[in-house]
Design a protein that fits this description.
Mean pLDDT: 91
Helix content: 40-55%
Number of helices: 17
Largest sheet: 4 strands, antiparallel
Shape: elongated
Radius of gyration: 28 Å
Low-confidence stretches: 434-441, 445-450
Number of domains: 2
Strand content: 5-15%
Number of strands: 6
Distance between the termini: 56 Å
Bound molecules: zinc ion
Oligomer: single chain
Amino acid sequence: MSEKIFDFTGNPFVDAGIWAISQWVGKKPAELDKDDLRKIIDEVIFLYLTPKWSKNMYQIFPNNPITNNAVKDKKDRYSQILNELIEEMSPLSSNGDCISCGRRNVLNRSTKDRVPLTGSKKVINYFSYGIDGADYCPACTFAIQFSPLITYSCVKMLLIHSNSDKIMHYWSKKAKENIDKQMSTKNYTGCLNEGFKNPKNALFHIIQDIILSYDVRWYLEKPSINFYHFTNFSQGPALDIYHIPTPVFKFLAYIPQHEKFEEWLKIVRRGYRFVDWNKVKEENEYKNNPNTVYNNLLEGKSIIRFFIDRKNKEAIGGWDLISHYLEEVRNMEEKRINAIKKVGDELAAYIESIDDMKTLNRLEMANDYRSFRNVLRIIMKKRISNGIKNPLFTFDDYVNYLFPEGNLTWRETQDLILFRIYEKLQPWIIQQGNQAKIEIQEPEEAQKEE
Ligand SMILES: [Zn+2]
């Protein structure tokens, strides 16, 4: 067996700690040795003992020497614990009873002063079999002690975990850069904190920040990413887990290179609820409001409506961006996307040729599957009587691509057709000077019915 101490375990706390140590030492995780671990102890304890860091520590390791008020010689006590763990740890072997790495044996069971969310000895809250604590080997227990270094503060604590080395490497790099800044200015502000209180908005911010800050071909990554929003606070430990679907990550990674990136930001802004945009002066005034675009991306719900400004008859982001979203995130067949686009194009050309806003209004107002089909049928008839020979769509297109699940997907089709018409007819719509603000559902209301 090699002398390798750390390999990734899939346990978010342990892996975060390994990345934090690796970043601190400046070595790859697999290359870390006991000397590296010994070297970082004093610096990290110094950091933890500064007021704001130790305040964060209450949420991560209540009752450890840093946070236990009864402990007087905090530095020495914690240093002793960490050094003992180093002495006890052995290189990875092929098996073991540690519930994190499974490749080393447990010497002492850990409780929440060392491992978050593992109860408090006699107070048994989360535990299967009612055991007091959890079985972590010395090396995994040691690693966890450094996880606060790359934990994000968002009222509770937010921990990012991914199977992508690139994501974890760049995230831990970002956190370390923040710590370096704190140390060089001697202004110790605790775990990375950017004023986010809403964990969902925070995690989208974090992802976008990683994508934009580091020049990596992110769209080639296919990471699985989880965010753990937790507190280990004595009065009420809690945990929420958010999973970022891989297609959503790929889409987010693709957007910054798109010429309509600015319009995407507009789409995201439309997702914020309860914001009076006339009064907003800075991001802090809305960045913690619930955002339906983010919410829907996390929950696998559609955000098509946020691309469409029905009030101003505007297609935000353009067909190229929305079709990429449909394909990547909604898993929509290319043939269906193209069939809808074609119908949108035909309808736009027809509406412009007869100069008829009423037809567009009818398409907008159709409020159920039946009336929408009816409007299309009337247009088809009129087109024929106007001498247009090619049909609006074929029967096959109708059944397979326009309304494949009939009542279930008709509104999606309507939205996309309107999107395409708005895009094609933008100059005509402006020329019409039609700002008749027909009362049509705006996104926020539209959510209620979904
Ligand atoms: Zn272990």
